[in-house]
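Below is a filled-in request sheet from our internal design queue. Each sheet records the structural input a requester submitted and the sequence that came back. We keep these sheets so that new team members can see what a complete request looks like end to end.

REQUESTER: design group, bay 2
PRIORITY: normal
MODE: inverse folding
CHAIN LENGTH: 212
BACKBONE (tokenized):
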């Protein structure tokens, strides 16, 4: 049912290691700032297009492609222009995002209306074309959780403007768990930095006075 799919999707994205928003929450917590500040900062990180809004980006990409028959040319153009194919690849996975397999099955199950099914088929064609056209590379990227999630949300009746809020409604429990863990044995998080700019310059020599 739709409720089961929504619950399953929210469980899948409840927590996922030291992603950008979770790390942000822990950094803010480590300063002994209140929980509300940590959650606000985490939300700010989640709002970025490379993090929490990738599902919306993948859906808008599918709308741009329009139909499965145009997927191969779209991928070709993206690779030639150095354009990101939203929802493909993940920093934590060398091959397949295991969550993506589950969410793809959910999308296929719930996308029963014609418009939703066309979006699903278009995304499937984009994924297949991307894998085929990048198969010669050392690391072949696959779809991540965000790639098919937009279709699931849209089929559930959630407008794309609320995708990130839906994500946050799940991830907030992960953030809070990290806040609690950070406070148990807290030390302020302060990563070291190494300067790699130009070497210090020698001061210019002052001209000596000439007695005349």
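RETURNED SEQUENCE:
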């Amino acid at each position: 049912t739709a409720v089961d799919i929504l619950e399953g999707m929210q469980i899948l994205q409840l927590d996922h290691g030291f992603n950008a928003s979770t790390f942000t929450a822990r950094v803010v917590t480590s300063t002994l700032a209140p929980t509300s500040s940590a959650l606000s900062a985490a939300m700010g990180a989640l709002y970025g297009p490379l993090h929490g809004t990738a599902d919306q980006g993948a859906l808008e990409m599918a709308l741009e492609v329009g139909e499965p028959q145009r997927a191969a040319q779209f991928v070709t153009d993206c690779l030639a222009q150095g354009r990101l194919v939203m929802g493909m690849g993940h920093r934590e996975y060398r091959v397949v995002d295991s969550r993506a397999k589950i969410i793809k099955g959910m999308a296929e199950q719930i996308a029963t209306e014609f418009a939703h099914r066309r979006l699903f088929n278009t995304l499937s064609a984009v994924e297949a074309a991307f894998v085929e056209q990048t198969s010669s590379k050392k690391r072949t990227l696959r779809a991540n959780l965000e790639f098919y999630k937009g279709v699931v949300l849209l089929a559930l009746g959630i407008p794309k403007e609320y995708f990130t809020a839906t994500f946050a409604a799940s991830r907030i429990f992960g953030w809070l768990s990290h806040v609690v863990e950070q406070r148990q044995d807290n030390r302020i998080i302060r990563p070291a930095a190494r300067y790699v700019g130009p070497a210090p310059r020698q001061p210019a020599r002052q001209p000596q006075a000439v007695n005349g």
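SHEET NOTES:
- The mean pLDDT is 89.
- The first helix runs from residue 2 to 12.
FILED BY: M.R.
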